Amino acid sequence: MTRALTAGGLVAALGVGAGLWASSGDPGTPAGSSSRQVAEGASGGGPGAARAPSPSPTPSRSYPLSTAPRTIPAVRSHTPARGPGWRPAAGRRVVVGDARLADEGRLVAGELGLSYAGVRGDTRAGDLRLVRNADRGANPESYTMTVRGGRVTVSAPSDAGVFYGTRTLKQEVHGGGTAPEGVVRDQPAKPQRGFTLDIARKNFSAGWIEDRVRELGDLKYNQLGLHFSDDQAFRIQSDTHPEIVAPEHLTKAQVRQIVAVAAQRHITVVPEIDSPGHLGAVLAAHPELQLRNVRGVATRGAIDISKQASASLLDDLLNEYAGLFPGGYWHLGGDEYQALTVSNPAASYPQLASAARARYGAGAGVSDLATGWLNDRADTVRAHDRTMRAWNDGFFRGTSVKPAADLVVAYWTGKEFGARTPTEYLSAGRKMLNYNDKYLYYVLGEPNDFVYPTGRRIYEEWTPRVLRGTTPVAARYDAQILGGSFSVWCDLANSQTQAQVAAGVRMPLRATSQKLWDARTPALTWTQFTSLANRLG
């Protein structure tokens, strides 16, 4: 997913050794200045206007003022300058300021055909230098990239920020392009930028998932959600409960490799074992735990949360997979528990009503028991020091038992019976993630009135504040919205091949990346954005 942009039409021919003009686009120019603003400042006659000095004596050459790089997502600001820019060439080095950046250095060196030289204090023509700075107050994912005098320096307060700088550089030089002279200052609007993949209903190969991880990394995503347990299948090897695992599944070795490829790109893999609904595959091996109504009829996908054995089984799995997924996030699920979709849950499921009263008192109901189940699973995961999220329809109104205070609301729909508006959660102080099913749900086969989302609608209409439907919540809640996730759900698994899914999500992923990185109206039209994406591959 590399991107290209020259720093003026003559740059490629002029080479690195040519002389430079001093520029009004000095790094001291305010970060928000555009190329046009700086150019106008240099030529204008008003007070404080910079004046371009005379060109160097012959035979040095001059260069046009650089233009901002075009990348996906777009950089937040670029201070232009005059100079040859930079492009990779055989024999040039990647050097790092300290050994902690070795992974980032080796990765970009391999991608650009450069030599990785490790920690070096010397300077050579053509170097790409990666540095961690001491700006502790800065956004940890921010970075500054300076292209000057035939060299590049990427500086950031964290390894992740340095990595994102190398993604921008990789995009700029794609296809023989040149990184434009000047300074890029960049950072994301939202700290959580995700892609969720349903591997339970459809088996995706480990290689296909790794390819998506590489794609996500180049687009500056930082989370991959894996929904690997549902009614259709349980898709990851289990040592505690091998009886629940589908014949087609990922081995733990394959998952570790996916996690490693993701970690190299600063992507956290977020696992989801959805409960107490969506457990059909687990229950096929444990029919004694299947929820049944008062007539003895099984309820699809639902586990009987009145039984201690149900809790023990789920906790076994949560504890087991906490060791396989070392990242800081966990998705508990919590949605669509069918016991709560009937008109009178207590009458239909008297065992749940009885268990609720026994645990929480005479006034407790089935929704209290379901909330308690989610809180108990949260306790299990919290012991592994994870930040947890649950689907919005796992949070119930009017219960005496309240959802754990540290649960982030993963808001996906307002279609569910009794669904609460996003503002209800936000006004109560909850943090939220945006999974808006109107824009961000790619549901195979388009069942239940779903249609495949288009990148254009996301790019032109959606922002992280559009949590439900098409209407954004008030700007005052923006800081509580941590980010969002584009999701692939495989309800009709055979509707598309893996290759078709990859092609179908290509532009939606790029559009979502842009809006999570910078929620403002993009500078490019959709036609221009599509052309850029096609040029970059």
TrEMBL record:
Keyword Zinc recorded: no
Coiled-coil ranges (or none): none
Keywords annotated in UniProt: Glycosidase, Hydrolase
Superkingdom of source: Bacteria
All residue ranges annotated as the Beta-hexosaminidase bacterial type N-terminal domain in the record: 69-187
Pfam families, sorted: Glyco_hydro_20 (PF00728), Glyco_hydro_20b (PF02838)
Domain Glycoside hydrolase family 20 catalytic: 193-502
Bias type Low complexity, positions: 80-89
KW Signal (keyword) present: no
GO molecular function: beta-N-acetylhexosaminidase activity
InterPro entries the record matches: Beta_hexosaminidase_sua/sub, GH, GH20_Enzymes, Glyco_hydro_20_cat, Hex-like_dom2, HEX_bac_N
UniProt-annotated stretches for the region Disordered: 24-89
Enzyme Commission identifier(s): 3.2.1.52
PANTHER family: BETA-N-ACETYLHEXOSAMINIDASE (PTHR43678:SF1), PUTATIVE (AFU_ORTHOLOGUE AFUA_2G00640)-RELATED (PTHR43678)
Family named by the database record: Belongs to the glycosyl hydrolase 20 family.
Entry protein name: Hexosaminidase
Organism: Streptomyces achromogenes
Lineage of source species: Bacteria, Bacillati, Actinomycetota, Actinomycetes, Kitasatosporales
